[in-house]
Design a protein that fits this description.
- It is a single chain.
- The protein has 216 residues and is of the alpha+beta class.
- The protein folds into two domains: 2-82 and 203-210, 3-Layer(aba) Sandwich (Glutaredoxin); 89-200, Glutathione S-transferase Yfyf (Class Pi), Chain A, domain 2.
- The chain contains eight helices and four strands; from the N terminus they run βαβαββαααααα.
- It has helices spanning 13-22, 44-47, 66-77, 89-121, 124-153, 166-180, 188-198, 201-210, and strands at residues 2-7, 26-31, 55-58, 61-64.
- The protein has a four-stranded mixed sheet with strand order 2-1-3-4, with helices on one face.
- A hairpin with a 2-residue loop joins strand 3 (55-58) and strand 4.
- Helix 1 runs parallel beside helix 3 (66-77) and helix 1 packs antiparallel against helix 6 (166-180).
- The radius of gyration is 18 Å and the shape is globular.
- The protein binds glutathione (GSH).
- Glutathione binds at residues 7, 10-11, 39-40, 52-54, 65-66, 102.
- Residues 7, 10-11, 39-40, 52-54, 65-66, 102 line the site of glutathione.
Length: 216
């Protein structure tokens, strides 16, 4: 049985959702965040040296990093589900979005979170420097990602094409986090995509198993 080391209110929710979509049995080991720092508890370091979530254990293997976990699960248990056929344009789109989620989108969203916290904790003159960085660098890039997503979804139902894939699962967390850190703005296709993923039975089932998740 697969064990998912799952941190509450975190991007690891995607792994539970993917397992539900694939119909693969799993157990959840739930970790609470430190109430002050919001960091993961030290026990996670015993599972993987980074001390981050998600991490899965499967048949004696430990797999970390969401994108790697998603690829591993789709390859090992998917039997061709949730991934476009090799050699197609859709497969290339799938690969692009799978990497974009943690490689391009999340850094801007983590910076948004940290800068917002810094601004409230600093004296006004220093806070102005952080706000300047936010306005000149982080906000425009975050908005460019939102525009790109909206443009893609105005041309196809899902991120890799007309079929729902694990790339949609990977993008769920950045898009949910973007909604909570600045909003999605007037982007109807993106708003509709979010409503469609959140209505999926597997998404709802994963929420029941995963405990607190502030982004649903
Ligand atoms: N790129 C990594 C990021 C892992 C990560 O930062 N996980 C967060 C959960 S949102 C975490 O464990 N945070 C707690 C901490 O840093 O102590 C992945 O996708 O697996």
């Amino acid at each position: 049985m697969i064990t998912v080391h799952h941190l509450e209110h975190s991007r690891s929710q995607r792994v539970l959702w993917l397992l539900e979509e694939l119909g693969v049995p799993y157990e959840v080991k739930l970790y609470a965040r430190d109430p002050v720092t919001r960091f993961a508890p030290p026990e996670l370091k015993a599972v993987h040296p980074t001390g981050k979530s998600p991490v899965i254990e499967d048949n004696g293997r430990v797999v970390a990093e969401t994108g790697a976990i998603v690829e591993y699960l789709v390859e090992t248990y998917g039997r061709g589900a949730l991934i476009p056929p090799p050699g197609t344009d859709e497969r290339l789109r799938y690969r692009y979005w799978l990497h974009f989620a943690e490689g391009s989108a999340m850094p801007m969203l983590v910076m948004t979170l940290l800068f917002n916290r810094l601004v409230t904790a600093m004296p006004p003159e220093q806070a102005a420097i952080v706000t300047g960085l936010q306005q000149s660098y982080v906000d425009p890039q975050r908005n460019a990602h939102l525009d790109l997503w909206e443009a893609v979804l105005s041309g196809s139902t899902w991120f890799a094409g007309d079929a729902f894939t694990a790339a949609d699962v990977m993008l769920s967390f950045p898009i949910e986090a973007a909604r909570s850190r600045g909003g999605l703005g007037e982007r109807p296709h993106l708003v509709d995509w979010l409503a469609r993923i959140q209505a999926r039975p597997a998404y709802r089932a994963a929420l029941e198993k995963g405990g607190p998740y502030a982004y649903a």
